[in-house]
What does this fold into?
Amino acid sequence: MSLAIGIEERMPGYYLVTLGGRLDNNTHGACEEKIRPLLVADTQAIMFDLSALDYISSMGLRVILKTRKEILGKGGSVHFVNMQPQIEKVFEIVNMLKGMTLFASVEEADAYFDAMQKKTLESG
It folds into this structure.
């Protein structure tokens, strides 16, 4: 099985990355290549929609961790929506959920991002 990867800029600097299928040893490289252009200082947040992700391996987890490390290092954030129970269990096992924000839907995450941007504009 393959990996479907979609990237959409929801607002300037805020990206939705949709993953479907399997993020594993065979597909992690393609995923890294697609995400690489987002790992810049202008990126405020990356939101992973995992509603269609069926499986994640250790190499898939590595992609997520590497993305998170890069974005956090630039002052941004990484969030997850629609995480399937089996994927959430893998994240729990490797203790990756600590410090990460999970949203029930893309709409909920967009509302959060709107509020973050308004707060930044008001304080700036």
User: Anything to note?
Assistant: Helices lie at 28-35, 58-73, 85-93, 106-123. The chain has a mean pLDDT of 86. Strands lie at 3-11, 14-23, 45-56, 77-81, 101-103. Residues 111 and 117 are 10 Å apart (CA to CA).
